[in-house]
Amino acid sequence: MDIYAEQRRIADTPALAVNQDGDDPATVAKVIVAAATDSKPKVRYTAGRQARLVGAARRILPAGVFDGQIRKTNKLAG
């Protein structure tokens, strides 16, 4: 919808940057295969450096600080 076009454009910018600087697709593919074939699957699987950093920040930072950083990174109002 046109009403969301500006916010979508704002959100696309950091998303594209993350994709360009993201982890090797082979790294992610290995984790997907492990998740799909694990006899005792975990609730979450972490694939790559960026995901590990975000996961660590989520565990260490207070929720408000973490959420604020996610909003700032993704250029969301908040």
Overview of this protein structure:
There is one protein chain. The protein has helices at 5-20, 25-37, 49-60, 63-73. The protein is mainly α and 78 residues long.
Describe the structure in brief.
The protein has helices at 5-20, 25-37, 49-60, 63-73.
Portion in strands? under 5%
Please indicate the count of domains: 1
**Spatial gap, N to C terminus:** 22 Å
Calculate Rg over CA atoms.
Answer: 16 Å
Estimated helix fraction: 55-70%
Specify the biggest β-sheet: none
Key descriptive features of the protein:
67% helix; mainly alpha; single chain
What is the strand and helix layout of this fold?
Blueprint: H1 5-20, H2 25-37, H3 49-60, H4 63-73
